[in-house]
Design goal:
Elements lengths: L1 H24 L6 H20 L4 H23 L23 E3 H18 L9 H16 L2 E3 H12 L8 E3 L5 E3 L2 H6 L2 E6 L2 E2 H8 L8 H11 L3 H6 L8 E7 L4 E6 L4 E3 H7 L1 H9 L3 E6 L4 E6 L6 H17 L3 E5 L9 H7 L6 E3 L2 E6 L2 E5 L3 E3 L11 E6 L6 H11 L4 E4 L9 E8 L6 E10 L14 E2 L5 H11 L1
Parallel strand pairs: 11-12, 12-17, 17-18, 18-21
Antiparallel strand pairs: 1-2, 3-20, 4-9, 5-6, 5-7, 7-8, 10-11, 13-16, 14-15, 14-20, 19-20
Helix pairs in contact: 1-2, 1-3, 2-3, 4-5, 5-6
Length: 492
């Protein structure tokens, strides 16, 4: 009997801690499950200790193991930003229910409250309670939903976004992931040098102002990008409250100033597979490219690294080493990093790059990490540089950026700017260096909408800088950045 109780105690301790990886990798469960299992483990441990008065070593071990297991289990649910998250799960269906599907008001409110519970637990803004402006907006949204018997999935997404968008955090949002149709002419327009400047006769900037509450962004340029994505899909047009059946009028302007209008109807929107087939050559050229590559222009003494994603892996590491070896052998005097189409990833890509620069240390962001009811201040604000002494580069460094440069790619540019390591050419990146990140992803239970929430607060590397963005040293359109780079190099 005593042995059985011993094995039971060990099993319950393992089960209490095991709930954490089970939740992370397999299934959702309420936090209080860890409390229940922990209480059972405590009761079993107490019974074991009471019934084994002469076995001091065993009692001590069981007591210590149970305390450790209970603490880890409770912290692993209530202070774990990834509890019930899909971040580490494989084979997760992230396709949202059809955007026109109706939910009952009760179902919608459950998803709304699920959203509020999650951001209250995880987002740094909510550490000391829910801000009044968030509470006020939440109550207005809840009242609107309660007034109707049903609400569409798309309309629910818009209502929830009207709350999250107030945070001005481009990393925290709710969005539908639909098997949707896309307007079939857009790629042709773009290839012909046209951009959309108005929708249904409303100038793009004005239209964005009308719809800005539907988007989480830190800079208007990032919000414009999100809006542009939506006006090209059937689901996005519905999300914006427009009626595709009546036609959507697009005003286009070319690079040389020519203006034309095109009106599109439902038949002009096709499934993504057909869209891909229509522009197969374009997308094959795009998908065949690695996320990182470089080219050497010996005539102008420049190496250009194209980095489309911040992936810190062996391919990136090997590419850098190969490039800087060639730079050394060919005595290249200039290096440029093209981040114009980089949406972020791992900040370690910047650290790895700096190992080829002749600097002993550099300023980096400090971080506040929200872990449930805990808040950890991390980082000294300075990073020692573990240099590759055999391949150090002492020439001029340039970065090309655009409004699509986001998250860790913005951080790369920030570190270059704040440490005076090089010259930034192009447009200001799409998010604030004093912003939020390190996200956890979730699926709302009834609508299957995808939700992403920031858990960290980042503080700019240069603490004395009051700029809201990482402004370029040489400002120009992202399309002209490469041309401007060569102009600067030739002048120098």
């Amino acid at each position: 009997m005593k042995k059985r109780l011993l094995f039971l105690c060990i099993f319950l301790d393992i089960a209490a801690v095991g709930l954490i990886p089970v939740n992370a990798l397999l299934c959702d469960m309420p936090e209080y499950v860890t409390i229940i299992v922990s209480l059972i483990a405590i009761v079993s441990a107490v019974l074991f200790i009471e019934r084994n008065q002469n076995r001091k070593v065993a009692k001590t071990i069981i007591g210590i193991l149970t305390v450790i297991a209970v603490v880890l289990s409770v912290l692993g649910s209530y202070c774990n930003p990834y509890w019930n998250s899909i971040t580490f799960r494989s084979n997760v269906n992230i396709i949202t229910k059809p955007y026109t599907q109706l939910l009952s008001s009760d179902e919608a409110i459950k998803d709304l409250d699920n959203t509020m519970k999650t951001i209250r637990k995880l987002h740094p803004v909510f550490l000391n309670g829910t801000p009044e402006y968030i509470t006020r907006q939440y109550e207005e949204v809840k009242a609107r939903i309660e007034e109707s018997d049903y609400i569409s999935v798309n309309d629910l997404a818009g209502e929830i976004e009207s709350i999250l968008s107030i945070l001005r955090d481009g990393h925290t949002y709710v969005r539908g992931v639909y098997d949707e149709k896309i307007m079939k002419y857009y790629r042709k327009w773009a290839n012909d040098g046209y951009e959309i400047t108005a929708v249904n006769g409303i100038q793009f900037n004005e239209f964005f102002e009308q719809k800005s509450s539907l988007y989480s962004y830190e800079t208007p340029s990032w919000g414009h990008r999100l809006l542009l994505d939506d006006i090209l899909t059937g689901a996005g047009i519905d999300y914006l409250g427009l009626d595709l059946a009546n036609g959507i009028e697009y005003t286009l302007i070319s690079e040389d100033g020519k203006v034309r209008t095109e009106t599109c109807y439902p038949d002009d929107f096709i499934p993504w597979t057909e869209y891909y087939d229509l522009y197969k050559s374009y997308y094959e050229d795009t998908t065949e490219k690695s996320f990182v590559s470089y080219e050497i222009d010996e005539e102008n003494s420049i190496a250009i690294l194209r980095l489309d994603e911040c992936n810190y892996n062996s391919e990136y590491i090997d590419c850098l080493r190969s490039m800087f070896a060639e730079i050394r052998d060919k005595r290249i005097e200039n290096v440029a990093v093209d981040l114009r189409y980089n949406g972020g990833g791992s900040s370690l890509v910047a650290d790895e790059f700096f190992r080829y620069l002749d600097i002993d240390s550099y300023k980096v962001s400090s971080i506040g990490w929200r872990l449930g009811f805990l808040y950890l201040n991390l980082g000294s604000g300075t990073s020692a540089n573990k240099k590759y002494d055999d391949l150090l580069f002492r020439g001029d460094l340039y970065l090309l950026t655009s409004t699509r440069t986001f998250s860790s790619a913005m951080m790369f540019a920030q570190y270059v700017k704040d440490n005076g390591l090089g010259t930034i050419i192009g447009e200001a990146p799409g998010n604030n260096p004093n912003g939020y990140g390190e996200v956890a992803g979730f699926i709302l239970p009834n609508s299957q909408l995808f939700m992403q929430v920031s858990t960290k607060r980042f503080y700019r590397a240069d603490k004395e800088c009051t700029d809201e963005l990482v402004y370029p040293d040489i400002e120009c359109s992202s399309h002209a950045a490469m041309e401007e780079l060569y102009r600067v190099i030739k002048e120098n």
